[in-house]
Amino acid sequence: MNKLIINFTPTGMIPTKEMTPFVPVTVNEIVEDVHRAYELGITMAHIHARDEQTGEPTYKKEIYAEIISGIRKYAPDLVICASLSGRNFNTLEKRADVLSLEGGVKPDMGSLTLSSLNFNKVASMNAPSMIEDLATTMMEKGIVPELEVFDVGMINFGKYLLKKKRIKSPLYFNLLFGNIACAQSNLLHTGVMLNDVPEDTLYSIAGIGNTQLMMNSLSIAIGGGVRVGLEDNIWFDANRTQLATNAQLIERIHVIAEANNREIMSPTEFRAKMGMEPGHGSYGRIY
User: Fold this and answer.
1) Which of 135, 122, 124 is nearest to 164 (CA)?
2) What is the span of the domain harbouring residue 142?
3) What local confidence, expressed as pLDDT, does residue 160 receive?
4) Does the structure show a pLDDT above 80 at 200?
5) Engineering a disulfide at 114: which of 25, 41, 157, 254 sits with its beta carbon 3.0 to 4.6 angstroms away?
6) Closest CA to 11 of 245, 254, 197, 206
7) How far is CA 176 from CA 26, 130, 203, in A?
8) Domain count of the fold of the chain
9) Where residue 205 falls among pLDDT bands split at 50, 70, 90?
10) Residue 161 in domain
11) For the residues of the chain, what is the DSSP string, one character each?
């Protein structure tokens, strides 16, 4: 069976210290949580930056540079993806700011949500022109898009971008289930999404909120990867009696992976499959 991709999402844009003391929001906290996860065994890290004073999400490349630099002191091979989210920022200048980083702080990947969508209380705006502009910028910079999809039509838009040569194979998808306005966490929706993913594509499955464990377990059982972390779920149990730490969530994935005879895919193996630079000072994709 394929080796297991563990895509670690430590922070996100929603969790706050008021919601859980375990969410890392400062540069040092994020670096330390990723360092701990790397020691436990992960393939990649999906990073959101926060303002050091307010704890609010930020697009600023300077803060991303501090986070990436701190992580690479301990994990020079780890695949790092920077968020280009449109939930809080919807100008190309802001969303693409982190893509201008170079050298040792260049992100390997940038998240690319393939359509607009509604969350519980806010919308994430991703106009076709914005998606294409971000994809083109990543192509120019040698940064790999992390294709984020919440519904089946988004996969089709990814195929459209591939046909238009805005993105390049091999592809990596995050398939996210359980958002209120998108694909739900059940077998039918999962099967429909997987049926439309292009052949020879790497993917990870995420469940939002209480469905994180279920959807991660399903993906491990069927040979997919997982996206896991406090970004998607702050609770360790479905009854919401115990707040989770990122380390606990990753340790549980390792237990399930071992029970399914799934080895963890190393960052080096992922880089080779995606045609990426080897790390250790060289980052992004070889174009």
Assistant:
1) 135
2) 6-273
3) 97
4) yes
5) 157
6) 245
7) 26, 21, 11
8) 1
9) very high
10) yes
11) -PPBPEEE----SS--TTT-TTS--SHHHHHHHHHHHHHH--SEEEE-EE-TTT--EE--HHHHHHHHHHHHHH-TT-EEEE---SSS---HHHHTGGGG--GGG--SEEEEE-S-EE-SS-EE---HHHHHHHHHHHHHHT-EEEEEESSHHHHHHHHHHHHTTSS-SS-EEEEEE--TTS--SSHHHHHHHHHHSPTT-EEEEEE-GGGHHHHHHHHHHHT-EEEESTTT--BSSTTS-SB--HHHHHHHHHHHHHHTT-PBPPHHHHHHHTTB--BTTB-SB--
pTM score above 0.90: yes
Separation between Cα atoms, residue 139 and residue 110, nearest integer Å: 11
Residue positions counted in the chain: 287
Pairing outcome for strands 44-47 and 79-82: parallel
Decide if 281 is inside a domain: no
Q: Is pLDDT above 80 for 86?
A: no
What the block records as the tokens of 88 is 């809080």
Residue 282 lies in a domain: no
> What is the CATH classification number for the domain harbouring 265?
3.20.20.70
Query: Which residues make beta-bridge pairs with 46?
Result: 81
In a domain, 285, yes or no: no
